Amino acid sequence: MAANKLSVIVMGAAGRMGNLIATLVNSNPAFTLAGVTDHSSKIGELDKFKCPVADKLDSLVNAGFSGVIIDFTAPEVSLNTARIAARAGVCAVIGTTGLNDEQQAELWQLAQQTPILWSANMSIGINVLEKLLPELARNLGPQYDMELVEIHHKHKKDSPSGTAIMLAKSMASARSWNLDETRVSCRDGIIGARKEKEIGVMAVRGGDVVGIHTAYFLGPGEIIEVKHQAESRENFAQGALRAAQWLSAQKPGKLYSIQDMIRN
Ligand code: NAD
């Protein structure tokens, strides 16, 4: 049976997501933890995983690795992971948020060489919501103003969250709007009446909130709210493991998302 196990390297294994993913990989008989990495200052924390530890991904990959790298770190780091994966012809599941347009374009290019899946939110629930929101928007019609509010823990670096952008894009697509042109993420001062063609995407930060996203459709005499609340990080981590298994059977050619996985 050991031959069927999927080998996984976890980047950023001292971080909130990396630590959970490496722990789940170690306790799941379908996987082998082939290595973990983090900053040199943190690799002392990684001995508990009882697998090869390194502060550079290259050294783990160059040791003849074949499997999937899972990376929840920071945009530049994840891009470098994708470059290494493309060079070595191994798969990469990337959950890092906050990648700019240029970084996303490079990820698309690298995905032509090796299977890469990138999703700002690995939760199955959020991905189903991404499909549902445009349908709601279309059925309710243009009289309903669309807004989105997200809440996250106080350590989160990017704002609004990658998930909020992903959901707002899906709402904008129902009206053939470009989110970059219609998103408003700050309202301050004498701003006047709300424009018809805009989507508010607002962020709240504090405490240890894992992630709450609420989409609003505000119409004449009624409000529809659709809310997703992540109760723990485990739903993202389990989504990443499922994505690793699915991706290991895919071919390069496009930058995959969780949507591609749940459609199959
Ligand atoms: P975190 O700060 O707790 O962890 C990141 C880890 O990456 C840290 O331990 C850091 O030392 C490590 N790191 C930084 N540079 C590195 C390098 N060069 N090599 C190896 N490790 C390195 O952050 P987190 O809460 O775990 O989130 C990480 C990312 O994942 C963020 O972008 C966050 O928004 C995103 N995230 C995505 C999802 C999803 O479902 N896609 C869910 C939660 C978080």
Give a summary of the structure in a few sentences.
The protein contains nine helices and twelve strands.
- How much β-strand is present in the residues? 15-25%
H-E string: EHEEHEHEHEHEHHEEEEHEH
N-C termini distance: 25 Å
Q: Total helix count?
A: 9
Q: What share of the residues lie within helices?
A: 25-40%
As a whole number of angstroms, the C-alpha radius of gyration is 20 Å
General form: elongated
Main beta-sheet annotation = 7 strands, parallel
Q: Oligomeric form of this entry?
A: single chain
Number of strands: 12
Poorly predicted spans: none
Write the layout of secondary structure elements.
Layout: E1 6-11, H1 16-26, E2 31-37, E3 53-54, H2 57-61, E4 68-71, H3 75-88, E5 91-94, H4 101-110, E6 116-118, H5 124-140, E7 145-152, H6 162-173, H7 179-182, E8 183-184, E9 199-205, E10 212-219, E11 222-229, H8 234-247, E12 255-256, H9 258-263
Parallel strand pairs: 1-2, 1-4, 2-3, 4-5, 5-6, 6-12, 7-9, 8-9
Antiparallel strand pairs: 7-10, 10-11
Nicotinamide-adenine-dinucleotide binds next to helix 1.
Describe this structure in words.
35% of the residues lie in helices and 23% in strands. The chain has 9 helices and 12 strands. Strand 1 (6-11), helix 1 and strand 2 form a beta-alpha-beta unit. Helix 1 (16-26) packs across helix 8. Residues 11-12, 14-18, 37-39, 42, 72-74, 77, 95-98, 119-122, 236 line the site of nicotinamide-adenine-dinucleotide.
